[in-house]
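> call design_seq(struct)
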């Protein structure tokens, strides 16, 4: 073993007794030559890092690695204010309706203007308007009456049928005696306006029943503005019945869980008169 050859150093290897490669100052000098100092900005003259930064980089302090998480001061972070959330259109509509005290289906032209201090369930509106022409017999007269109603309302009338037999009047059960048309909504209000114009917006108090409904007659259909006398038809009068209602009256007409409307929620004659005054400017005549 003692007779073995010594290992010859390879080209480029430092001798065993060689001194350290260089000191820290020499390294910094070389870095300054490679990266000239710019000045107060901390970068070199040609846009590179300063010597101090390069020195730290040479020593291995090159900043946090991708695996490391930087420490953030929680007190130094400010939370940005949250943007206001957009209100859905349906929610906005409900909010606006609640502010204005409006009721769906009852805020149209045929209802009261609800005040802030009023209960919307107490609002009054026109439920329907029924126009009836009775001729007492079937045949040509009934056909003419149907023609008049169709011209006045733009709707197809239905026949009214006798429910009983009366020998003195010469009618039998199931015999057609007249025709009628039922109007609702905007059409009902417009027709009432036209009919009240014929009456000069004056109605006697006896036209109102205890439930607040209004009934009056028109002696001749030619009194309407857009109607002219037709010699082939002749003269026909008609009865007009305006039915008023409140929200909740549906419980007396529905098939399931039918119930009576409480007396405190029903309409009175005075409330019907007040509605006609406020809605159509009708003058109610107290006739004795």
């Amino acid at each position: 073993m003692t007779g073995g050859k010594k290992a010859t150093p390879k080209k480029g290897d430092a001798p065993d007794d060689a001194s350290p490669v260089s000191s820290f100052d020499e390294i910094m000098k070389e870095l300054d030559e490679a990266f000239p100092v710019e000045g107060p900005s901390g970068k070199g003259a040609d846009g590179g890092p300063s010597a101090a930064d390069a020195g730290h980089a040479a020593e291995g302090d090159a900043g946090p690695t991708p695996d490391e998480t930087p420490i953030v001061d929680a007190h130094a972070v400010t939370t940005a204010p949250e943007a206001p959330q957009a209100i859905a259109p349906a929610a906005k509509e409900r909010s606006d309706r609640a502010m204005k005290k409006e009721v769906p289906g009852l805020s149209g032209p045929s209802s009261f203007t609800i005040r802030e201090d009023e209960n919307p369930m107490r609002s009054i509106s026109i439920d329907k308007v029924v126009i009836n022409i009775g001729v007492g017999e079937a045949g040509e007269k009934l056909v003419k009456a149907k023609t008049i109603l169709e011209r006045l309302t733009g709707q197809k009338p239905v026949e009214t049928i006798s429910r009983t037999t009366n020998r003195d009047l010469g009618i039998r059960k199931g015999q057609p005696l007249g025709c009628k048309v039922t109007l609702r909504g905007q059409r009902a209000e417009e027709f009432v306006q036209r009919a009240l114009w014929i009456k000069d917006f004056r109605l006697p108090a006896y036209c109102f029943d205890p439930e607040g409904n209004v009934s009056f007659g028109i002696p001749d259909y030619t009194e309407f503005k857009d109607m002219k006398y037709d010699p082939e038809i002749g003269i026909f009068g008609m009865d007009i019945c305006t039915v008023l209602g409140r929200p909740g009256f549906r419980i007396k007409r529905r098939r399931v869980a039918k119930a009576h409307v409480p007396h405190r929620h029903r309409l009175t004659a005075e409330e019907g008169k007040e509605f006609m005054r406020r809605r159509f400017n009708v003058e109610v005549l107290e006739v004795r």
